[in-house]
Amino acid sequence: MHSMSAHRLQGFVTWHPLIYRDFPIVLLRVFRWLSVLPLGLLQALGAALGLLVYALSGVYRQRLRAHLQQAGYDPQRLARKAAAHAGRMVGELPVVWFRRGAAAPVHRVEVIGKEHVDAVRAEGLGVLYLTPHLGCFEISAQMAALWGPITVMFRPPRKRALLPLALASRQRHNLATAPANLAGVRQLLRALRAGEAVGLLPDQAPGNGEGVWADFFGRPAYTMTLPARLVQLGKARIILASALRQPSGRGYVLTLEPFPEPLDADPQRAATQINHALEALIRRAPEQYLWAYNRYKRPAGAEPPPAQHGEELAA
What we know:
The protein has a domain at about 105-290: Glycerol-3-phosphate (1)-acyltransferase (3-Layer(aba) Sandwich). The protein has helices at about 1-35, 40-55, 60-70, 75-100, 115-120, 140-145, 165-170, 180-195, 225-235, 265-280; strands at about 110, 125-130, 150-155, 175-180, 195-200, 210-215, 220-225, 235-245, 250-260. It has 10 helices and 9 strands. It is α/β, with parallel strands linked by helices. Helices cover about 50% and strands about 15% of the residues. GO terms for molecular function: acyltransferase activity.
């Protein structure tokens, strides 16, 4: 028995570098193969996976429930629904990323409020789409690309093996990516000044001290100041975008609406305004928000938050 175990271990060590080298190619092929399956089936499988992770991972479960409670929701009632929707988000990615042509998911999106985008364009201004981690947020940029060029800020995945998959998923007409650094910010500004569109996920914690602590569901969250700077320097208007998932794989409803008030000149107050606007979107369908994302962490380079609220804030 010991000899057999040693042989298997040696085989694993011998083949593991090859497996790791080919893993991005294999993963890309798997995603392309999965993209031909029905959207409803993939979402159902994803929901089951989400519930399994919720049941097995104590850290995931605890954070999801704590964030729901922080926002005033009953975790007992909503936690499993949120975990299932998080799984659906993963399950639908092969279709959202790789299905093209007449069967592409953009053809199963009901759009509400496109007139607000048209009004901004009629003024000759750039459009700054702000999309929280709500529903199928990936589809928002794809829809915007149907109406004109859009540049989205892209933060490469931490695992380098996933980079080819992430890049391949964003290769489409009218959709460009900008790195999350100074060069990327300049690229976003150029796009806005040219009257094009830019997309950001504003509830993603920034790094390198490039944010402020602002209220998010009653607790300080480190929040990017980039949207306010882009509006001021790029001659742009904010459009809030949220793409909610419809039942049984029927598609999505993309709602577009102007920002409810002018942004304050003070970065901290402007960040709070944006967070509160995102809260209003999330409260329309709280079960579709990614509550397990560590929104209240303290990223590297950030100053300490104004108050500790019991949860570990270190990145």
